[in-house]
């Protein structure tokens, strides 16, 4: 079946379009603040502070527009031609030590702005340092940063970006205006994804869009990236729920039920054999764990106290996975916890 939007002749890309081959998350990265979805309060405050920006700390879940917002703001302030000289963008997870803060960041922060040609009059008289993923800066590096932020604030404004605000030391938090980025709600998610489908001439079943929105849990980057992949899986067809599930790596229900039944059997050998089979089939441990837990919550054989015990184990398992623990062992660990807590 042809695409609805192609049928309507909404838009076709020319081969010369330089964005043609970009992954969609970059192709559809908002270029201006007006194109950022769902972060109204943040946008209003930023637009009102454009002339004299404070130091900023953006925090919130992944894929909600933090990096896009500061890049769009910088582009609006300086214009594309001055972005290079007025903005230093560092990914703190690669450059997380105190040396980077002492040398690169400090040197840039204290450097004066050299004449900026004809935009000079409209441009604010400061530079911006973006420290993305600032939650991975070491504590020493954060301590060193606070002095630099204070000393050179006339010349340089900082934008720290992180997911976990609890990893930022209080002294830095108190020097910044905090901007909380919310998970993208269902309606905003749908609007943006529908817009991308229109632009790309992608047709889809409404249920497939619902599944995509449900699975991405407010992370627009994930949703766009999955849509991009799903559109390649079924190029000339409508995107279906199954295509989305396959792209996302959703584990089929019968496999999840099989795991839970192995736990109910109370046989360790049976549990281990089932877990081995599931991981050997190539499913992601984290995905398996999330789906098993959701099923457990609906299982009448497990009482409320026991669900709490399983929830506690899940917290530990999640931490181990984040620290690089073996996926097979972590799924096994969850299934053993469930087995012990089943009546
Ligand atoms: N609020 C938003 N409005 C429009 N597009 C968005 C928004 N949030 C995310 N996106 C899309 O997702 C992509 C990634 O967004 P971005 O890099 O800004 O997320 P982030 O919040 O910085 O995530 P992370 O914490 O993982 O770094 C963007 O290129 C854009 O396509
Ligand atoms: Mg980011």
Short structural summary:
Residues 52-203 form the AAA+ ATPase domain. With 343 residues, this protein is of the alpha/beta class.
Detail the topology: elements first, then pairings.
Blueprint: H1 4-7, H2 24-27, H3 40-48, E1 56-59, H4 66-86, E2 87-91, H5 98-110, E3 127-132, H6 139-151, E4 156-162, H7 170-173, E5 177-180, H8 186-200, H9 206-216, H10 220-233, H11 241-248, H12 253-264, H13 268-280, H14 285-297, H15 304-322, H16 327-340
Parallel strand pairs: 1-4, 1-5, 2-3, 3-4
Helix pairs in contact: 5-6, 8-9, 9-10, 9-11, 10-11, 12-13, 12-14, 12-16, 13-16, 14-15, 14-16, 15-16
Bound molecules: adenosine-5'-triphosphate (ATP) and magnesium ion.
The site of magnesium ion has 4 residues, from helix 4.
Protein name: P-loop containing nucleoside triphosphate hydrolase protein
InterPro entries: AAA+_ATPase, ATPase_AAA_core, DNA_pol3_clamp-load_cplx_C, DNA_Rep/Repair_Clamp_Loader, P-loop_NTPase, Rep_factorC_C, RFC_lid
Keywords: ATP-binding, DNA replication, Hydrolase, Nucleotide-binding, Nucleus
Question: What can you see in these coordinates?
Answer:
This protein has 343 residues and is an alpha/beta fold. The chain has 3 domains: 39-180, Rossmann fold; 184-248, Helicase, Ruva Protein, domain 3; 253-340, Zinc Finger, Delta Prime, domain 3, CATH 1.20.272. It is 55% helix and 8% strand. The protein has 16 helices and 5 strands. It has helices at residues 4-7, 24-27, 40-48, 66-86, 98-110, 139-151, 170-173, 186-200, 206-216, 220-233, 241-248, 253-264, 268-280, 285-297, 304-322, 327-340; strands spanning 56-59, 87-91, 127-132, 156-162, 177-180. It has a 5-stranded parallel β-sheet with strand order 2-3-4-1-5. The longest helix is centred in the first third of the chain and has 21 residues, at 66-86. It is globular. The relative contact order is 0.10. Bound molecules: adenosine-5'-triphosphate and magnesium ion. Magnesium ion is lined by residues 66-67, 132, 161. Belongs to the activator 1 small subunits family. It is found in: Nucleus.
């Amino acid at each position: 079946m042809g695409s609805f939007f192609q049928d309507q002749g909404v838009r076709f890309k020319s081969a010369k379009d330089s964005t043609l081959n970009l992954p969609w998350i970059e192709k559809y990265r908002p270029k201006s603040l007006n194109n950022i979805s769902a972060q109204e309060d943040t946008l209003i405050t930023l637009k009102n502070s454009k002339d004299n920006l404070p130091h900023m700390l953006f925090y919130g879940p992944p894929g909600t527009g933090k990096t896009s917002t500061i890049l769009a703001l910088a582009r609006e302030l300086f214009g594309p031609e001055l972005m290079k000289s007025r903005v230093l963008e560092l990914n703190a997870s690669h450059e997380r030590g105190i040396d980077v803060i002492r040398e690169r960041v400090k040197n840039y922060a204290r450097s004066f702005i050299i004449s900026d040609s004809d935009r000079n009059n409209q441009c604010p008289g400061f530079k911006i340092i973006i420290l993305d993923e600032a939650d991975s800066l070491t504590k020493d590096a954060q301590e060193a940063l606070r002095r630099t932020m204070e000393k050179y604030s006339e010349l340089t404004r900082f934008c720290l970006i992180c997911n976990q605000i609890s990893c930022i030391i209080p002294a830095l938090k108190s020097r910044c205006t905090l901007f909380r980025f919310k998970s993208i709600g269902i309606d905003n998610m749908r609007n943006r994804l529908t817009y991308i489908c229109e632009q790309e001439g992608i047709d889809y079943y409404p249920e497939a869009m619902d599944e995509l929105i449900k699975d991405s849990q407010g992370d627009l980057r994930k949703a766009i990236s999955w849509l991009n992949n799903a559109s390649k899986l079924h190029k000339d067809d409508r995107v279906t729920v199954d295509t989305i599930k396959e792209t996302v790596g959703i584990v089929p229900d019968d496999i999840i039920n099989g795991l839970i039944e192995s736990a109910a059997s109370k046989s360790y050998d049976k549990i281990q054999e089932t877990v081995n089979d599931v991981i050997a089939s190539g499913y992601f441990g984290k995905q398996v764990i999330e789906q098993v837990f959701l099923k457990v919550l609906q299982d009448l054989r497990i009482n409320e106290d026991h669900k709490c015990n399983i929830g506690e184990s899940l917290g530990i398992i999640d931490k181990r996975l984040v620290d690089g623990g073996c996926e097979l062992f972590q799924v096994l660990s969850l299934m053993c916890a469930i087995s012990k807590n089943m009546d």
